[in-house]
Amino acid sequence: MAFDSSGNLYVANQGLGQIIEITPGGSQSIFASGFTLVQALTFDSSGNLYAADDGNNTITKITPGGSQSLFYGGLAGPLGMVFSSTTNLLYEADWNTGTVNKIDLSANLSVLATGFNSPEDLAVDASGNIYESDFNTNSIMKITPGGSVSTFASGLNGPEGLTFDSSGNLYELDRGSGDINKITPGGSVSFFTTGVATSGYFVTQPAPAPEPSTVVLLVGALGISGALGRKRRS
């Protein structure tokens, strides 16, 4: 999922190979189609939407008007993706190579960090640091813009979805337990809630100041086919 600057929500409908636009009032329409297995969505600072399609190992760029073009191909299981306004770069997690790549807006790719076991989702903090949920090692790794890697949190249970709130707390969804954990900027993990889902992904909804942003969890609502499932690999 991803929100645009106007508060419209974009959701990958994996079952139909579409991206659905949902207005703040709840109206749904097809924004883009023709995909195989979209796993992640993110916007750049100009309002272009990027879709990581795990089914054909590509990233597609979609303009605000809905025009689609190939942005980058030849990846290896793109699952997580996030844009950082701090570095003006797109970050992408390759499950099959255990790599987090950085791609500039001219589509030049380089490796940010590698050696991960099972990179799932990505999130970025206000300083431009990237956080990667490493599914099989039950940990969250922190990657600086320069590529230094450290363990941010461990002892989780199949971490998948990640997002930050406006106070810099990271929220993490455990696939294994259905728990949502809250992790402070210092790395302190606490239970937030449970029983929400056994699979799902987060997005932070922007809000005008001084209202706080809202963390939104997609759990297969809205009648969207296949809105949850990422392809599970062994």
Structure characterization notes:
A hairpin with a 5-residue loop joins strand 11 and strand 12. The radius of gyration is 16 Å and the shape is globular. It contains no helices and 22 strands. It has one domain: Neuraminidase (6 Propeller), CATH 2.120.10.30. 0% of the residues lie in helices and 49% in strands. With 234 residues, the chain is mostly beta strands. Mean pLDDT is 86; it is low at 207-211 and 219-234. A 4-stranded antiparallel β-sheet has the order 1-2-3-4, with no helix packed on it. Strands 5-6-7-8 form a 4-stranded antiparallel β-sheet, with no helix packed on it. It has a 4-stranded antiparallel β-sheet with strand order 9-10-11-12, with no helix packed on it.
Quick tags:
mainly beta; Neuraminidase; 4-stranded antiparallel beta sheet
Which secondary structure elements does this structure contain, and how are they paired or packed?
Layout: E1 2-3, E2 9-13, E3 18-22, E4 28-33, E5 38-43, E6 49-53, E7 58-62, E8 68-72, E9 78-84, E10 89-94, E11 99-103, E12 109-114, E13 119-124, E14 130-134, E15 139-143, E16 149-153, E17 159-164, E18 170-174, E19 180-183, E20 189-193, E21 201-205, E22 214-218
Antiparallel strand pairs: 1-2, 2-3, 3-4, 5-6, 6-7, 7-8, 9-10, 10-11, 11-12, 13-14, 14-15, 15-16, 17-18, 18-19, 19-20, 21-22
User: What share of residues is helical?
Assistant: under 10%
Overall tally of domains: 1
Strand proportion, as a percent range, falls in over 45%
- Can you give the mean pLDDT? 86
What CATH architecture do you see? 6 Propeller
Give the radius of gyration: 16 Å
- CATH class placement: Mainly Beta
How are strands sequenced across the largest beta sheet? 1-2-3-4
Q: CATH topology, what is it called?
A: Neuraminidase
Class by alpha and beta content = mainly beta
Count of distinct strands: 22
Q: In sequence order, what are the helices and strands, one letter per element?
A: EEEEEEEEEEEEEEEEEEEEEE
User: How would you name the CATH homologous superfamily?
Assistant: TolB, C-terminal domain
Main sheet summary:
4 strands, antiparallel
Count every helix, treating DSSP H or I runs of 4 or more residues as helices: 0
**End-to-end C-alpha gap:** 24 Å
What best-fitting shape do the alpha-carbon axes yield? globular
Low-confidence stretches: 207-211, 219-234
